[in-house]
Amino acid sequence: MHFPALLYTCILSMLFLIDGIPIHLDSLKSLVRLQADTIIFRIKEHNERTPLHPNIHIGNPELDVLADKPIQGLGSIVDTLTTIQEVLQRLPKGRVSQLHSYVSTLLGYFNERMTFMRCTPKEPANGRSLDAFLEDNATHHFTLGYITLDILKKFLQKLIDNLDQLKNC
After folding, report:
1. CA-based, 20 to 30 A from 119: which of 75, 93, 143, 155?
2. DSSP letter, residue 168
3. What is the pTM of this model?
């Protein structure tokens, strides 16, 4: 079921990169929905293979608000996904590597759309405190990965429900 969606995503991505022509908004919405659904499915698979206690929580205000952060156009989407991507990059290579790649692809779509629309990119709001948090929790990579993937899943579900925000900077 997910292989054809992934193949469709790859083909559209290649056409987009070859032509350098922005994807039409409706096609972009479909592409983002497919990619987000694939990531959510992969996160569920990952969590089934690596179950953790559901009440585990590592407190960090920057991470805690990501899933609940309102989507207010491409800038907020890129900001949130960039923060999640930074966390995924710090985790040991392994099962999250493919998810990191999927998020990179999504970020590429959004960055290209922002360039096409001449949007001004926002500076990430939580650089230093996020770095300090990641350093403090470097030895807890399984828990941190689980929590980050849960935040990513919630954010992507909200993104799917708010795809009209792709037309706003």
Report:
1. 155
2. -
3. 0.76
Q: Name the CA dihedral angle for 108, 109, 110, 115, rounded to a multiple of 10 degrees.
A: 80
Summarised one tens digit per residue, pLDDT across range 6-35 is: 554 554 454 444 445 556 777 788 889 999
Name the nearest CA neighbour of 16 among 33, 7, 29, 28: 28
CA distances from 53 to 30, 41, 50 (A): 34, 20, 10
The answer to whether residues 46 and 20 touch, using CB atoms and an 8 Å cutoff, is: no
Specify the DSSP element, H or E, that contains 104.
helix 96-116
95-112 burial, b if ≥16 CB within 10 A, otherwise e?
ebeebbebbebbbebbbb
Given the structure tokens 């405190």, which residue do they identify?
129
Residue among 154, 162, 160 at smallest CA distance from 43: 154
Per-residue DSSP letters for 48-72? Answer: HHS---TT-----HHHHTTTTS---
